[in-house]
């Protein structure tokens, strides 16, 4: 049984993990265990009953509470902080009841209530057994007749076994340099990762992995988790007294406030976390499978090879230029032609047009249909770029509704890329955008939309806010989900891509709406290797749109460029008019090869064999779920000569089955390929792709 429940003790079991919580003698809901699944329920430890530490810390401070309120002598990070109408700022949570819903995804709900005020908290624990993941979120309710001002509501506090020897893995970056994997000791104190930018951000990603410093890609205990939220978020990884170790995660409380009116509820977004002894690779594969199977709208549809005209034509699009590119793309085997920025009313550069979502009359005198029809006649689907959340001051929309942007009335409105942010917390702005984009999708044969967001916030004001203006941070994201969700429901066949100047909006919240992420505006392949490695910690390869472009053209063979992009959902973004006939022919070859192997890449298991972050010679391998075939990619950038390339040890094969690896003599057992390994010969800036077959 996945959930064991008594009156005061609960055990949540997934395929290989166990998680236990219970009421201690003081009545606090305490964390008891999170790790490998134990044979008997009685094996799980009882709720801890720590002692006070002299007069400076009471027992509650020492208790690993599942969801601490800010109350009493607690000095660690609380999950909930609120002020009642009478000014009391102490949230004393008491257990009321628990229930188990034993559905396909079993769920434990624990109801807590404030000791004195009509303020309820429900903690949700949903089990995704096959993925070894637990989903947690909290819902608060005001049952009284005065408002409650909420200053923090996090989704979960994840407790680890006590220890001050943990290592934290996380992702950092900036625009054109996203998703760099960092591993660092988690020392005493609190390490905070966050976004204050309104979107998930290029700087940090709401993902963590903790190990004891000894895990590697294949082995070792790893606790890992994410937050499914596309706005301001915060992660606090703490090591406190007596080596208490925990990670709290949720909506960022920085500049946050929420007025919870009588009768209202508020739901925090979900945090998903898991434990594995299969190292960082095992942690990633659990997330990949879960995202593919349970989150993505079209997680099991093959992504088409696309061409995007942005780097070729920039804003200079029109029917003739796009058709010229489309014809070349189709001849290469491209299946989806995407027109990027520049197509809509008044958009000649980045100073104007955003907000006016109708085809530019000068560039497209007969609208988009002639282009779309030609693209379709060439056997391709058609896709389009939009940036709905933004407006240029030089646009009809802004001239009509200058009050629709995020702003403070007495402050300058800071533009970035000449644009301001529409306040999509407002229902009237939501309705406008839904209407505009719905019209585009209804009147055109559009199969794919790239949804961009090209700036971070400034002057985060909302003058006509109905509640606390600081609710903007959350209501904006709710508005985003509402607009996108409505459009998705009305146009379920459309594949959406989440882009925010590259990878600024990559998270599990957006992946319930978008099938893909544009990982980075940096398409230079050698840099991209490390960006892709970071991305793969969390996200499966089918969500990773990767283009072959002209960036860094002189240095790298076309095969290298293709191999890098073939590790995700392949796209092409180069200026095809400048490509030679030989280049077109070679590109067509790689597109055909990719089509043959893409089910393994998009739906298979991903193994990082050697990190491009730390090695100039790196490798990644994909294996089909039934382990009958695989594909290996290896890349060498620059290595001082003479250099000997180390062997690569394949992964994920059936040890007893016999396999062949393309270009290497002999049939060997899966075990041999994994234990003896294989050697490749590559010179600088060379790459190789080898298929692997069961024989
Ligand atoms: C952003 C995107 C690019 C491109 C441009 C268009 O930078 O990340 O891929 O779409 O906008 O303006």
Question: Short description, anyone?
Answer:
This protein is an alpha+beta fold and 695 residues long.
Structural overview:
By secondary structure, the protein is an alpha+beta fold. The chain folds into 3 domains: 284 residues, Beta-galactosidase, Chain A, domain 5, CATH 2.70.98; 298 residues, TIM Barrel; 86 residues, Immunoglobulin-like. The strands form 6 sheets. Strands 6, 7, 8, 9, 11, 12, 14, 15, 19 and 20 form a 10-stranded antiparallel sheet that branches. α9 links the parallel β28 and β29. The longest helix has 23 residues. It is globular and about 80 Å long. The protein starts with a strand and ends with a strand. The model has no long low-confidence stretch (mean pLDDT 97). Bound molecules: alpha-D-galactopyranose.
Terminal CA distance: 40 Å
Roughly how much helix do the residues carry, as a percent range? 10-25%
- CATH superfamily assignment of the largest domain? Aldolase class I
Indicate the proportion of strand residues.
25-35%
Q: Which runs of at least 5 residues are low in confidence (pLDDT < 50)?
A: none
Taken from the alpha-carbon principal axes, the silhouette is globular
CATH fold-level name of the largest domain: TIM Barrel
Question: From the 3D coordinates, which CATH architecture of the largest domain would you assign?
Answer: Alpha-Beta Barrel
Question: How many H/I helical runs?
Answer: 12
Biggest beta-sheet profile? 10 strands, antiparallel
Return the CATH class of the largest domain: Alpha Beta
- Secondary structure: number of strands: 36
Question: Which structural class should the secondary elements be placed in?
Answer: alpha+beta
Question: What average pLDDT do the residues reach?
Answer: 97
* Molecules bound to protein: alpha-D-galactopyranose
Radius of gyration: 26 Å
* Total number of domains: 3
């Amino acid at each position: 049984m996945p959930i064991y429940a008594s009156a005061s003790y609960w055990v949540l079991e997934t395929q290989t993990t166990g998680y236990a919580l219970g009421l201690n003698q003081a009545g606090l809901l305490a964390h008891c265990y999170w790790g490998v699944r134990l044979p008997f329920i009685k094996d799980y430890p009882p709720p801890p009953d720590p002692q006070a530490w002299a007069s400076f810390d009471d027992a509650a401070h020492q208790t690993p509470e599942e969801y601490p309120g800010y109350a009493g002598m607690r000095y660690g990070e609380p999950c909930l902080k609120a002020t009642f109408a009478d000014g009391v700022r102490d949230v004393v949570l008491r257990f009321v009841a628990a229930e188990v819903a034993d559905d396909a995804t079993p769920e434990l709900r624990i109801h807590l209530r404030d000791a004195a005020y009509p303020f309820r908290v429900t903690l949700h624990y949903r089990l995704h057994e096959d993925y070894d993941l637990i989903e947690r979120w909290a819902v608060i309710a005001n049952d009284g007749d005065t408002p409650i001002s909420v200053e923090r509501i996090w989704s979960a506090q994840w407790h680890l076994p006590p220890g001050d020897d943990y290592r934290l893995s996380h992702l950092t970056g900036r625009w054109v340099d996203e998703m760099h994997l960092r591993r660092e000791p988690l020392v005493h104190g609190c390490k905070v990762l966050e976004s204050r930018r309104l979107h998930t951000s290029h700087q940090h990603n709401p993902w963590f992995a903790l190990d004891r410093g000894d895990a590697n890609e294949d082995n070792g205990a790893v606790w890992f988790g994410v937050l499914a939220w596309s706005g301001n978020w915060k992660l606090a990884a703490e090591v406190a007294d007596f080596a208490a170790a925990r990670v709290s995660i949720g909506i960022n409380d920085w500049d946050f406030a929420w007025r919870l009116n009588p009768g209202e509820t508020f739901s925090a977004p979900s945090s998903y976390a898991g434990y594995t002894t299969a190292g960082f690779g095992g942690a990633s594969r659990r997330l990949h499978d879960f995202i593919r199977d349970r989150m993505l709208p079209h997680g099991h549809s093959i992504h088409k090879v696309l061409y995007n005209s942005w780097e070729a034509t920039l804003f200079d699009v029109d029917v003739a230029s796009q058709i010229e590119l489309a014809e070349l793309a189709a001849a290469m085997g491209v299946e989806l032609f995407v027109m990027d920025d520049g197509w809509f009313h008044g958009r000649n550069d980045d100073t104007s047009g955003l907000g006016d979502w109708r085809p530019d009359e000068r560039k497209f005198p007969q609208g988009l249909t002639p282009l779309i029809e030609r693209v379709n006649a060439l056997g391709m689907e058609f896709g389009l770029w939009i940036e709905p959340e933004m407006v240029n001051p030089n646009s009809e929309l802004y001239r009509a509704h200058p009050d629709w942007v995020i702003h403070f009335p007495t402050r300058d409105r800071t533009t970035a890329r000449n644009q301001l942010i529409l306040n999509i917390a407002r229902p009237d702005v939501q309705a406008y955008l839904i209407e505009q984009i719905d019209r585009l999708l209804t009147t055109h044969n559009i199969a794919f939309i790239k949804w961009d967001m090209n700036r971070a916030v400034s002057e985060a004001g909302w003058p006509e806010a109905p509640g606390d203006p600081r609710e903007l941070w959350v209501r904006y994201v709710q508005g985003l989900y509402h607009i996108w969700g409505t459009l998705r429901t009305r146009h379920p066949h459309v594949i959406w891509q989440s882009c925010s100047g590259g990878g600024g909006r990559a998270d599990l919240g957006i992946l319930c709406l978008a099938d893909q992420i544009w990982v980075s505006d940096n398409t230079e392949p050698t840099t991209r290797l490390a960006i892709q490695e970071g991305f793969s910690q969390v996200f499966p390869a089918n969500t990773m749109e990767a283009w072959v472009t002209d960036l860094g053209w002189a240095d790298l063979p076309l095969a290298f460029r293709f191999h890098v992009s073939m590790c995700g959902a392949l796209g092409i973004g180069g200026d095809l008019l400048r490509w030679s006939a030989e280049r077109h022919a070679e590109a067509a070859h790689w597109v055909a090869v990719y089509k043959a192997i893409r089910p393994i890449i998009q739906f298979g298991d991903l193994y990082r064999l050697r990190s491009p972050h730390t090695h100039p010679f790196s490798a990644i391998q994909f294996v089909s779920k039934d382990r009958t075939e695989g594909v290996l990619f290896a890349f060498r950038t620059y290595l001082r000569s003479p250099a000997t390339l180390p062997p690569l040890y394949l992964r994920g094969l059936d040890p007893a089955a016999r396999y062949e690896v393309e270009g290497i003599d002999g049939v060997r057992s899966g075990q041999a390929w994994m234990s003896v390994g294989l050697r490749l010969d590559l010179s600088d800036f060379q790459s190789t792709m080898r298929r692997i077959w069961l024989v």
